[in-house]
Amino acid sequence: MQLRLSLLTAAAISLTACQPKPDTSHARAAEERGLKIVADCVSEQCSTLNLDNAYLPDFGTLASMPHITKLMVSYSNLPSLDPLLEMTQLTELHIGATVVSDLSEIARFKNLKLLHAQQLGVSDISAIAHLTGLEELVIGSQSITDISSLKSLKNLKKIDLSHSRVADLAPLAKLPKLETVELLYISSSPDLTPLLRMRRLKSVSISSENLTDKNKQILEKLRAKGVKVDAQELIIVC
Question: Pick from 230, 140, 146: which is nearest to 185 by CA?
Answer without folding.
Answer: 140
